[in-house]
Amino acid sequence: MAPNATPASVYRRGLRLLLDKDIAAWIDLWDDEGVFEFPFAPEGWPARLDGKAAVAAYMRGYPDHIDLHAFSSVRIHHTARPETIVVEMHGTGRLVRTGDPFAMTYIAVVTVRNGLIVHYRDYWNPLALPAGGASDFAGTGAATRSAAPGRTGATTVTPG
Fold first, then answer.
1. Domain residue spans in the chain?
2. Taking every annotated instance into account, which residue ranges of this chain make up the domain SnoaL-like (predicted)?
3. Between the CA of residue 96 and those of 32, 63, 122, 136, what are the distances in Å?
4. What is the pLDDT confidence band of residue 137, given thresholds at 50, 70 and 90?
5. Are 98 and 107 in contact (CB under 8 A)?
6. Residue 106 in contact with residue 150, Cβ under 8 Å?
7. Which of 11, 12, 53, 59 is the most exposed place for a label (fewest CB within 10 A)?
8. Do the Cβ atoms of 126 and 146 come closer than 8 Å?
9. How far apart are the first and last CA of the chain?
């Protein structure tokens, strides 16, 4: 993205790339030293990823586990810090391995500098998914619930 891209435009671009399953391009939205945090990560799942390479390794297989179809009710809230936004949204799709529906409400706190994500705190809810939905996501095999990393005004982003 352009160095002067707003946090909201970077985030919306990221949603589109996730729906398109273009993980490599999504990773390109990250700063080399970016931090991805999951405050509600269950035991056995990473709570923090340091650096673009770690984020890439974690997200590489995402489309093999969760087939995202849409993000709805996307609300981007601006903060007192122009480079930081708070995002509320709802993601839907299906769990690839089981075919079960995927539905997750997210809250994310995202900081963008020079057009790149430098910090992303993802408040996904591991209790919202069926047991075993994507237990091998991120290579842990230990978790029994799926992890979903995972984004002014309400809009719906759908493929197409």
1. 7-145
2. 13-120
3. 30, 8, 22, 12
4. low
5. no
6. yes
7. 53
8. yes
9. 21
Choose among 43, 56, 40, 36: nearest CA to 140: 43
Q: What is the DSSP letter of 142?
A: -
In this structure, whether the domain defined by 7-145 belongs to CATH 3.20.20.80 is answered with no
Q: Cα(102)–Cα(67) distance, rounded to whole angstroms?
A: 8
Interatomic CA distance for residues 98 and 110, integer angstroms: 31
Tokens 């209790």 belong to 127
Alpha carbons 34 and 20: distance in angstroms, whole number? 22
Gap between the Cα atoms of 67 and 44, Å rounded: 23
> Which among 58, 76, 59 has a CA at the least distance from the CA of 68?
59
Q: What value does the mean pLDDT of the chain take? A: 84
CA angle at 19 for the pair 15 and 99, rounded to the nearest 5° = 130
d(CA 98, CA 94): 8
pLDDT in tens, 87-104: 999 999 999 999 999 999
Over residues 105-115, the pLDDT tens digits come to 999 999 999 99
pLDDT greater than 60 at residue 147: no
Name every residue whose Cβ is closer than 8 Å to that of residue 48 and which is 6 or more positions away in sequence.
35, 36, 37, 38
